[in-house]
Design goal:
The complex is a heterodimer of chains A (525) and B (100). Chain A is α+β, with helices and mostly antiparallel strands and 525 residues long. Helix content of chain A is 58%, strand content 9%. In chain A, the strands form two sheets. A seven-stranded antiparallel sheet of chain A has the order 3-2-1-4-5-6-7, with helices on one face. In chain A, strands 8-9 form a two-stranded antiparallel ribbon. Chain B has one domain. Chain B has four helices and no strands. Classes of the chains: A alpha+beta (525), B mainly alpha (100).
């Protein structure tokens, strides 16, 4: 009795892990794949727009007041609560002046000129990758299903951890299957914690917040209709409105106020300035930043340290330090930290990116393990795989040439083309669909994946070449003009492209070779 | 009739190689209801202000959903799966009704 109970438990545990693994793996892989692009979103955002090919500049030397006056000359622009996004915020080298209800206006910090910003119909690359990352192209349906997949992945993490705990997985891999299993188990034994934190915050955003209406209703005894009404004051505290006096006065230069603010708290990196009652005697600027020495605790959405200064007299009104907040705000902040990496430098981004690439590979090996177990062998010669193999080949590897196409088209299509983004995205989807056709057309999946890697890698490299042809410049002149962040994107794209081509050359050509291949990798032959 | 349903629910399956539709549905939807009610209740129980404890509820309710779904799907018989869904949701509902 007891014996059969534990046998049933173990069988079910395996079955749940395998069944939900196959159901959720494809979407989770896509979320991870595009998520890696989204990690580098700030850099791609500057790379994709010719108007953002501006050298980095010291934020304390820019004449912001002139730009604000320029914006206020437009009678349709709101006069109060103007927000200035400082250069360097999410990788944007331009100064952005915006307001909650209007679209932002951008200035070149060197020349103070208005920038011709490419809008959503001209350039929408980084943001498109981000939308693919959380299912936005399918609107609410996509977001909910990606959120549901995130919950499913948490089930997989829980069952996977119990499996690792109960079964001592044998690390001396004897055959192909065992090696796949080893890679899958090893990667996730090491990386389950960051993977879990990122999945959990993803699930909160796509399902937790969307479905929180009834909970808000109960918690507020029927007053609030959305969760914002309950937790809004904790997570998104708003400063109280200041009554304006009506006396118009001259404002202090904002860059001087920035210098003053950094003398008060030298650890803060500033990213945003809020102007309240601008041009009035009561005018104040709220300078928002983050403290890079306190990771996981500040700088994201929920806990933003700030310094408030009077724009008329220049005296400090209040200071909010990185640790001045309530416990729930810190919990929310640290949960979302790995997902958004707000204000994180390139090295930490690369570390998180590499961890996620490993997780993606481990998901892929999990699917391959399932396919190997499901494969039917006839007379030990012919091997049939489940159709899922072709489908996952097209989605998981086929997405590489499709992404290569969208990157190359970014600089190949003229910027004044009508419906430019529509063409770009349309060709992307069609290429992706074509890879599905191609994986069925090529009966040998090994050959198909070699081709996908080769084409994808070449397109990644081509996109950087097209970039320089469009700009009519050289990498060296980019570096000399302080545009290392833009050159870096080209360098990484090239590097990734060469990696793909290398993988394409190294991969085995057929099943017999593959079995040998994995043995050679293990050093057995 | 009722005895047949009881037998169907209470006799454990021969093996665990198939999860079965009953368990899948109870795990997904039952788990959702239990987790949602439970996390709403947690916000009342944590001795902070509602607006602060509600943060904990929304941040963790999807994770609790995943945990409870696993817990329900792994139960020995279908009956225990059903009870793992019914008893907590009834208890939580009554508690929420009192607190509301």
């Amino acid at each position: 009795m007891e014996n059969s109970k534990s046998k049933l438990f173990k069988q079910r545990l395996f079955r749940i892990h395998i069944a939900s693994g196959i159901v959720f793996s494809i979407i989770m892989y896509l979320a991870v794949f595009f998520g890696v692009f989204a990690i580098f979103l700030p850099y791609i955002q500057a790379w994709e727009k010719p108007s953002r090919h501006i050298g980095a500049v010291d934020i304390k030397t820019i004449d912001y007041n002139y730009m604000v006056d320029e914006v206020l000359n437009n009678p349709n622009f709101p006069k109060n609560n103007i927000i200035i996004n400082l250069p360097g915020r999410v990788g944007d080298p331009a100064v952005g002046i915006t307001h909650r209800f209007v679209s932002p206006v951008f200035f070149n910090p060197h020349t103070k000129e208005l920038l011709k910003n490419e809008d959503k119909t001209q350039s929408y690359l980084a943001e498109f990758f981000n939308e693919l990352h959380y299912g936005q192209p399918l609107k609410l349906l996509g977001r909910l299903s990606f959120g549901f997949v995130a919950v499913g992945v948490m089930v997989l993490i829980i069952t996977g951890l119990i499996l690792i705990y109960i079964f001592k997985f044998n690390y001396k891999a004897k055959n192909q299957q065992a090696l796949f299993s080893t890679i899958h188990v090893k990667v996730f034994t090491w990386l389950f914690l960051p993977f879990f934190l990122i999945t959990l915050s993803g699930a909160v955003m796509n399902i937790g917040l969307v479905g929180s209406g009834p909970m808000a209703k109960i918690l507020s005894h029927g007053e609030a209709n959305s969760i914002d009404g309950v937790v809004g004051t904790v997570l998104f505290p708003q400063s109280k409105p200041v009554k304006s006096s009506g006396n118009s006065v001259e404002m202090k230069p904002i860059n001087e106020l920035l210098i003053k603010a950094s003398s008060i708290n030298e650890h803060l990196v500033f990213k945003q300035v809020k102007l309240i009652n601008w041009k009035d005697e009561t005018a104040i600027v709220e300078i928002v930043g983050y403290n890079p020495y306190k990771p996981f605790l500040n700088g994201g959405f929920f806990n933003q340290p700030s310094i408030t200064i009077s724009a008329y007299t220049g005296e400090v009104i209040s200071e909010k330090k990185a640790l001045d907040n309530v416990l729930p705000a810190f919990i929310a902040e640290s949960l979302f930290f790995l997902h958004f990496l707000s204000g994180i430098d390139i090295f930490s981004r690369i570390v998180v990116g590499l961890m996620m690439i490993l997780c993606g590979i481990a998901i892929g090996f999990g699917v391959m393990l399932w396919l190997e177990k499901k494969a039917k062998h006839y007379e030990d010669k012919i091997t049939f795989y489940h159709w899922m193999g072709k489908f996952s080949l097209a989605t998981m590897i086929g997405v590489i040439p499709a992404s290569g196409v969208i990157l190359a088209l970014q600089w190949l299509l003229p910027f004044d083309l009508q419906d430019r983004v529509l063409w770009q995205q349309g060709i992307f989807y069609n290429t992706w669909l074509f890879t599905l056709f191609w994986s069925f057309y090529r009966i040998n999946s090994y050959q198909a994946s070699k081709e996908f890697f080769l084409v994808g890698g070449s397109l990644f490299i081509l996109s950087t070449i097209f970039h320089y042809i469009y700009l009519g410049t050289t990498p060296i002149s980019l570096i000399q003009n302080n545009m290392i962040n833009i050159f870096g994107v080209d360098a990484i794209l090239c590097l990734v492209g060469f990696c793909f081509i290398f993988i394409s050359i190294k991969l085995p050509k057929n099943r017999q070779e593959a079995i040998l291949f994995w043995k050679i990798q293990k050093g057995e032959i | 009739m009722i005895l047949n349903i009881y037998k169907y629910l209470a006799i454990p399956e021969q093996n665990g190689k198939e999860i079965g539709l009953f368990r899948i549905l109870t795990a997904i939807f039952g788990g959702l209801i239990v987790a949602y009610l439970g996390m709403t209740l947690i916000a009342f129980i944590i001795p902070w202000e509602i607006k602060e404890s509600a943060v904990i509820s929304i941040m963790f309710n999807t994770f609790v959903w995943a945990c409870i779904s696993t817990w329900i799907a792994l139960s020995y018989t279908k009956l225990s799966a059903l009870l793992k869904f019914l008893i907590p949701s009834i208890v939580f509902s009554i508690a929420l009704y009192i607190l509301y």
